[in-house]
Amino acid sequence: MARLSWAVAFLAGWSASASAEPLKIGVLTDMSGVIADTVGKGSVVAAELAVADAGGSVLGRPIQILSADHQFKPDIGLTIARRWFDEEHVEAIADVPGSNVALGVQNLAKSKGKIALISGSGSLDLFGKSCSPTGFIWSFDTTVLPRASVLSGAADGLKKWFVVGPDYAFGHQMERAVTDTVTEMGGTVVGTRRSAIGTSDFASLLLSAAEAKPQVIASSFAGHDGVLLIENASEFGLLKEGIRIASMMLFITDVHSLGLDRMKGIYTTAAFYWDDNDDTRAFSKRFAEKMKRPPTYLQAGVYSSVSHYLKSVKAAGTTEGVEVAKKMRELPVSDLTTPSATIRADGRVMRDMLLVQVKSPDESRGPWDYYKIIRRLKASELMPAQPNPDCAIEQR
Q1: What is the spatial distance between Cα 345 and Cα 343, in angstroms, rounded to a whole number?
Q2: Which residues are paired to 219 by β-bridges?
Q3: Which residues fall within 8 angstroms of residue 204, CB to CB, at 6 or more apart?
C-alpha cells in the first residue's frame, strides 16, 4: 500500500511538472539589420545554450525561449515587449541592441516588475537617469569602451587622439568619454568628426583626421559603418603611416567580413574572446555547432545574462521580478563566458575587459583565429565601484 501511495504521488508530481506553465524568456534582437550577425540568431542560440546548461527547467517549470526582430524601431520593440509581458507571460527580455529600444523596453519591464537583461546596448542612461531595479547592463557601455581604449593607448605612450563617430546620442557619449579620459591621462584630442549612420564614404572624414596628425583615431562607428571606415582607412594607408585605429565597436564578425589583410593591426576592446581559455573554447565549440562560427561578445553576454538570471530564479525560489533582481545583485556572476563579475546597485555588471589587436594573415593559425590579447583590463580600472549618481535606485 505504501509503495502504491508513493507511485501515485510520484506520478502526480511528474504530471504537475510536465503540465507546468513554461518560464518564458524573450530574446529581442536585430534579425535583419546592420548588426544581425553580431546579435540576431546567434543571441537566440546563446540563450538556448544557457537554458540547456541550467538543465532545461527551474522551480519545476520548463524554460522556453521566444525571439523577435525589433528592426531597430522603438515602437516595434515596445509593441513586442508589451505583448510578451501582457499576453504571453514572459518574465525576462534579453539582448535588446539599440539604445532607444533598450531604454523603452527597460522602462516597460520596470513598470511591470519584469527583468530586462541588456547585453546589446550600452547607453549611460540605462544605469543612470533611466536605471531600473529590474534592469541589468551586461556587456559594455559608452564610458567603458572609450576608457579601455585610451588607457591602453596611454600605456603605450600615445597622447594625440582624433575622435570619430555617428552623429546621435550614442556617438556623442562615446566622444565625450574619449575626450574626458584623454584629458585625464595628460593627452590631447586634436580633432573630432561626426557622420550620419549609413554614410557611404568616409574619405573627407579620414582626410580631416590625417591632417590633424594624430597618433590614434578612435572610432565609435559600428556594423557596416565601422567596417567601411576601417576599409577606407586601410585604402588611404593610415596604418602604414603609423596611425593606430582604435575601433571601439568592432566585433569578430566584422573582422571576418573584411578579412585579416585589411583588418590587421586594428585595436578594439571586447568583453569576451572565444579563444581566451578552456571554458570560452568549450562554450564556443557548442555555439559553433549551431552557428558555424564562434560567438561575438554580445552573444556571449546573452548567454551570461540568461545563465545568471536562471541561477537567481532558482536561488530566490520565485520568478517574481523584484525578488529575482535582488538575488541577481547578491550572487556573483560566474559562467563559461564571464568567470568573475559582480553587479552594482544600478544594474551595471562590473566585469573585466580585453584589449585585443587583429592578427595579420601570417599570425593566424586557422579559421576565426583573429585576435591577439594585448592587455587585460580590470573592472576597477574601467568603472567606479560606486553606482552612477544619476541612478535613483535605493543603494545597498
Answers
A1: 7
A2: 164, 247
A3: none
What are the start-end ranges of the H helices in the chain? 2-18, 40-53, 74-86, 99-112, 144-155, 169-184, 203-211, 223-235, 252-258, 260-263, 278-291, 297-316, 321-330, 379-382
Q: Specify the 3-state DSSP secondary structure of 77.
A: helix
| Residue that the C-alpha cell 559562467 belongs to | 335
pLDDT in tens, 141-197: 999 999 999 999 999 999 999 999 999 888 999 999 999 999 999 999 999 999 988
Write down the number of H helices and E strands in the chain: 14, 15
* Surface-to-core class of residue 165, CB atoms within 10 Å of its CB (0-12 exposed, 13-18 middle, 19+ buried): buried
Fold of 144-270+353-382: Rossmann fold (3.40.50)
Domain ranges of the chain: 19-140+278-350, 144-270+353-382
The string over 288-307, giving b where at least 16 C-beta atoms fall within 10 Å of a residue's C-beta and e elsewhere, is: beebebbbbbbbbbbbbbbb
- What is the distance between the alpha carbons of residues 86 and 35, in angstroms, rounded to a whole number? 28
β-sheet with 160-166: strand ranges across: 188-195, 160-166, 216-219, 244-247, 267-270, 353-358, 371-377
Comparing CA positions, the residue from 213, 167, 190, 168 lying closest to residue 178 is 190
Q: Using one digit for the tens of pLDDT, what is the confidence trace for 189-234? A: 999 999 988 888 899 999 999 999 999 999 999 888 899 999 999 8
How far is C-alpha 66 from the chain's CA centre?
A: 19
E strand or H helix at 168, and its extent? none
Of 105, 110, 120, the C-alpha closest to 170 is: 120
Please tell me the predicted confidence (pLDDT) of residue 200: 80
Superfamily (CATH H level) for 19-140+278-350: Response regulator (3.40.50.2300)
CA 365 to mean position of chain CA atoms: 27
Please determine whether the domains at 19-140+278-350 and 144-270+353-382 fall in the same fold group of CATH.
Answer: yes
Taking the model in full, what pTM does it have? 0.91
Higher pLDDT, residue 395 or 363: 363
